[in-house]
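input
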Amino acid sequence: MVRLPILLVALSLSLQAAGAQQVDNGVVRVRALGKPGAYTGFAVASGDGEVARVLFSTHGAMTARAAKAAGTSLRFGPLVGTPTPKLGPGSYVKVTLLPGSPYPKVSFHLDLQRFDRAAWEKRMGRVPFHFLACSLPGAEV
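output
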C-alpha cells in the first residue's frame, strides 16, 4: 500500500506550507488571507479570536502573488491590481511583529505605474480605490 504514505507526505508538506504564511510573537499572530498566487490581505489574532482583518484593497482589486514568512515578518509581493492599478514588480506589503508588542508594524512600497479609471469603473462601478482596508470584527459603528 504505497498510496497511504504518499498521501501522508503530501498532507504534511501542505500543512508545512500553510504554516509558513503565518507569524507569531507570543502576543499576536498574523496570517495570510487568500490562496497561493492570490493573497488578499492578512488577519491579526490574539488569544482565541481575530482582532483585525486588513485587505490590500476593497473588492479584491489588489492581490499579492506570494506570502513569505521570515522571523516575525510576513512579506506579501509582488502586488498586482485587477484590472487596475498597474504596479511595478517591487510593490509589496510587509507586516512585522515586534517583541512583546500587540501592534503589528505595517510597511509597504507601491510603484504605481498606471491607473485606468475607465477599466476600474467598468469592473467596480463609481467607487473609490482603497488601499489597506481594515475591519475590526465586533467594533461598534
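quick obs: The longest helix spans residues 3-19.
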